[in-house]
Design a protein that fits this description.
three-stranded antiparallel beta sheet; Znf_MYND; single chain; mainly alpha; zinc; globular; 9% strand; Beta-clip-like; SET_dom; 497 residues; 3 domains; binds S-adenosylmethionine
């Protein structure tokens, strides 16, 4: 595909090539050995043993059902449309607030025509009045009660979803402001929602430590609140609006860039402090580029490709239009990048603002395609009520049944998003996998959890299936186009025509 170079690409071609060069095998080994050590994963190894790059291998035996690894997120986000369904910590993605608040927000958004998985009846999250969104959370602020009520007056008058039986506005109001406590909801205690330290009303946390970690890692640059460290909050809002209106994967790419900038600034600060303490010591190579490469390291290990080259052609695009489709995708990424640049540009990290790097970051998410899922506590709550002994259940259902009817089929929507998990992203695919990503009841945050599907012996590669492995050979290969490869697992080898 013919591509014109942007000025940053011309100026920084060497630095960009260094950032995108696959790290040397020894560095890969050292990084993953350290990561596994930090995560207490003594029975697995990351090795580069077969034709398709890195893979995860058992370094001990695992039995069926045993936990193989838990993998915290490197960068992750809840889908914008899912924010209407679940209130979760913006850093670890566990449910926060209370069962009543979770349900109240959902009913409230339903009442203004915003529903699960569908955004706001054709509009996007950002298009919904900010005041309306605040209404779901503002009861947590000291002076909020009145505002909540006013917002509801203003916003909760639209019609509810067709099939659901709405509850009165006062019920929604009291669920959100703590006035109504549902039976047995104390069996499902949730951490209180902590506001963003930057003052935006979009990020909430389960703890101060999550708020601080997110702030340090990326949110300080992506916060739209008054203490934001972005260059322009207005430009940032435009970037976010564009991402919500087109593809929210741009928000994740922005997180990856901010994560790298924040790490770069910290490394530089430490380096300058060291220099001040000991000016005569001849430091190692600490040019801006070497610091940038170090800051980028955790992202450098991810399997990558340019987004517009690796994205599968959608079914509704005619193959003869492929070139113009890919050009359009590239243009879309460029528009997003220019908006992001206006909001958070950092001269010392300029190569990160090239389209080449932006395209590879988005491509990394596309090729690894790792879902972030946290099971719904609201679903657990209603299942608990359903399992109560008959008499007690009847009594509880006097209150819970109308609420369940109002929620309708959407009552059990999980927290859904996209994330990059450093270890899970090293796991290769097999159509007869020996492990799967599976959340147990106790796995209540966004970490990836990998469980053995059968006995796995020491030395065996641990594989998961990226697709439904029960499909036919042809269907499986077609599904794997989305991941950019033709499967060479033993099952495909046997079944290929
Ligand atoms: C999520 S990554 C897995 C880790 C990867 N091997 C690495 O080096 O980072 C997915 C990529 O690994 C390769 N891969 C994984 N499973 C494969 C398989 N069964 N057959 C062929 N290639 C596979 C493909 O290149 C795919 O795009």
């Amino acid at each position: 595909m013919a591509e014109t170079l942007c000025p940053i690409e011309e100026k920084w071609s060497g630095a960009i090539a260094s950032l995108l060069r696959p790290p040397p095998p020894l560095q890969v080994q050292e990084y993953f050995d350290q990561l596994l050590f930090d995560r207490n994963c003594s029975r697995i190894k990351v090795k580069q043993e077969n034709d398709f790059g890195k893979g995860v291998y058992a370094d001990g035996d695992f039995e069926e059902g045993e936990l193989i690894l838990k993998d915290p997120i490197l960068v992750g986000m809840q889908h914008s449309s899912n924010k209407f369904d679940c209130l979760v910590c913006s850093f670890c993605f566990r449910f926060i607030g209370s069962i009543e608040l979770q349900i109240g927000r959902k009913l409230y958004f339903q009442s203004i025509g915003v529903s699960a998985n569908g955004g706001c009846d054709g509009e996007t999250f950002s298009a919904v009045s900010k005041d309306c969104y605040d209404a779901g959370l503002s009861h947590m602020e000291e002076d909020s009660h009145l505002r909540t009520h006013e917002n509801l007056e203003n916003c909760a008058s639209s019609s509810s979803s067709k099939d659901n039986i709405p509850v009165p506005k006062e019920v929604v109001d009291s669920l959100m402001n703590g006035g109504l406590v549902l039976p047995y909801s104390t069996e499902f205690p949730l951490p209180s929602a902590i506001s963003c330290p930057g003052g935006c009303k979009e990020a909430f946390y389960c703890s101060k430590s999550c708020a601080e970690a997110d702030w340090k890692l990326s949110h300080s640059l992506l916060c739209t609140g008054e203490r934001s460290k972005s260059l322009s909050r207005e430009a940032l809002s435009k970037f976010i609006q564009h991402a919500n209106g087109t593809n929210d994967i741009f928000l994740l790419a922005a997180k990856a860039i901010c994560f790298t900038i924040s790490r770069y600034r910290k490394l530089k600060e430490d380096y300058l402090k060291e220099q001040e303490k000991c000016p005569s010591a001849n430091a190692l190579d600490c040019s801006d580029l070497s610091l940038l490469l170090e800051a980028w390291k955790p992202i450098s290990f991810g399997h990558k490709g340019r987004w517009w080259d690796c994205i599968a052609l959608p079914d509704d695009v005619d193959p003869s239009d492929e070139a113009s489709f890919r050009m359009e995708i590239r243009e879309l990424a460029n528009t997003s990048l220019q908006l992001l640049k206006a909001a958070i540009f950092d001269k010392e990290c300029e190569p990160l603002f090239s389209l080449e790097i932006y395209g590879h970051i988005i491509g990394m998410f596309e090729l690894n395609n790792l879902d972030l899922v946290v099971a719904s506590l609201v679903e657990d709550y209603f299942l608990y009520i359903d399992d109560l002994p008959e008499l007690i259940k009847k009594e509880a259902e006097i209150i819970t049944r109308p609420i369940l009817d109002a929620l309708g089929d959407d009552y059990s929507v999980c927290c859904e998003g996209t994330a990059f998990f450093p270890l899970q992203s090293c796991m290769n695919h097999s159509c007869c996998p020996n492990a799967k990503a599976f959340k147990r009841e106790k796995d209540i945050d966004g970490q990836a959890t990998i469980i053995a599907l059968r006995h796995i012996g020491k030395g065996e590669e641990v594989t998961i299936s990226y697709i439904d492995e029960d499909l036919t050979y042809e269907e499986r290969q077609a599904s794997l186009v989305d991941y950019g490869f033709e499967c060479k697992c033993s099952k495909c080898f046997e079944e290929q025509p």
